[in-house]
Amino acid sequence: MSDLKGIQILDTGPFPAQRFGWSPPKNHTFAWTNKTDKTLRIWQIQVWMGMDIMGKGDFWYRLTRESDGSILSMTNWDHYRDPTGLHMVHMDYAPNWFDLKPEDGLLLSCGARRWNPVWPPVMRAHVAVTIWVTNAP
Fold first, then answer.
1. What band does 120 get if pLDDT is binned at 50, 70 and 90?
2. Of 106, 131, 130, which is closest to residue 42 (Cα–Cα)?
3. Nearest CA to 134 among 107, 90, 94?
4. d(Cα 75, Cα 77) in Å, to the nearest integer?
């Protein structure tokens, strides 16, 4: 597996958390497309989740393959105190990898909902996705 490489494919940057109160979850959607002419074999995925200091609330993501909706990774995180430690999900698929054909893609759906409507005045979440791939034979 000498051609194994890691690629950060998505970085949402900070996005505001949804205000407290009941309403349907507001998802943010980000997409990445395999623009190579080769099928990529996905061996591992790491999804990092960050939230502002003093942020209290619920935080979620779901990563799927666009062509068939296969779930590659998902989680929900209740962030209610600081410090909360490192929050990431690392998936190792070997020996059952995911193939991603040219022009197929990965979709990230994520969001955050505040618990406290007043403090901090601004609460943001942030998600980044890294994949480790080889070219499929």
1. low
2. 131
3. 94
4. 7
Say what the pLDDT of residue 124 is.
Answer: 87
Question: CA–CA separation, 123 vs 118, rounded Å?
Answer: 10
Question: Tens digit of pLDDT for each residue in 10-67?
Answer: 999 999 888 766 778 889 999 999 999 999 999 999 999 988 777 778 889 999 999 9
Whole-angstrom distance, CA of residue 121 vs CA of residue 50: 17
> What sign for the dihedral angle of Cα 45, 51, 53, 54?
negative
Instruction: Look at the chain and count its residues.
Output: 137
> How far apart (Å, rounded) are the C-alpha atoms in residues 14 and 4?
29
- Mapping DSSP onto H, E and C, the string for the chain reads CCCCEEEEEEECCCEECECCCCCCCCCEEEEEECCCCCCEEEEEEEEEEEECCCCCEEEEEEEEECCCCCEEEEEEEEECCCCCCCCEEEEECCCCCEEECCCCEEEEEEEEEECCCCCCCCCEEEEEEEEEEEECC
